[in-house]
Design a protein that fits this description.
- This protein is α+β, with helices and mostly antiparallel strands.
- It has one domain.
- The protein contains five helices and seven strands; from the N terminus they run αβααββαβββαβ.
- Strands 2-3-4-7-6 form a five-stranded mixed beta barrel.
Length: 173
């Protein structure tokens, strides 16, 4: 009878240990470094800078980059703050865009991206034309950069709502 009790007790103990790991592992919610926000959720917000502020977050979306074919608004100064410049145009979109989409159409549906040096962005596969990634990217950065205070008053809200990128990862894993 004791051998039979041992054969029953072993699986019961193993199931109990597994249940304990599951309960303890789920305490406290997911770790912040594993929270990713879809770009569509951010675009749905009235003021992402007020919601997230300067907190580092990860955003997932489709990247588009217009460089040589980017059209800056009339009167934009080349000496403007890096955060106020609109060319090159870098956007994160909720879905992969068609290559025939216009710059204005992309700007209407995308999240503006910027970086002080332009370093974290993927290189362009072609010297001119569209740069589209074939997969969604994970972009790490923040809103409401302190440099937004240097933007012209008419552009300050756009500067605050621009996502300042510190890192780009091409793999959604």
């Amino acid at each position: 009878m004791t051998e039979r009790a041992a054969w029953i007790a072993i699986p019961v103990i193993l199931v109990g240990i597994l249940a304990l790991f599951l309960v303890v592992g789920s305490l406290g919610g997911p770790r912040p470094e594993y929270l990713r926000i879809d770009v569509a959720e951010i675009l749905a917000l009235a003021d992402p800078a007020a919601t997230y502020g300067p907190e580092e977050i990860e955003v997932v979306g489709w990247y588009a980059n217009l460089d040589a074919d980017c059209e800056a608004p009339p009167g934009e100064l080349p000496s403007a703050s890096w955060l106020a410049r609109t060319c090159p145009l870098r956007l994160l979109l909720p879905e992969q865009p068609a290559t025939a989409a216009t710059q204005a159409a992309l700007q209407a549906i995308g999240l503006n991206l910027a970086a002080p040096t332009g370093e974290p962005f993927p290189p362009r596969p072609q010297p001119e034309g569209w740069h589209l990634m074939l997969e969604p990217l994970i972009v790490t950065g923040h809103f409401d950069d302190p440099e937004a205070a240097a933007c012209p008053p008419a552009e300050m809200e756009r500067c605050r709502a621009t996502f300042v990128v510190s890192e780009v990862d091409g793999l959604v894993h």
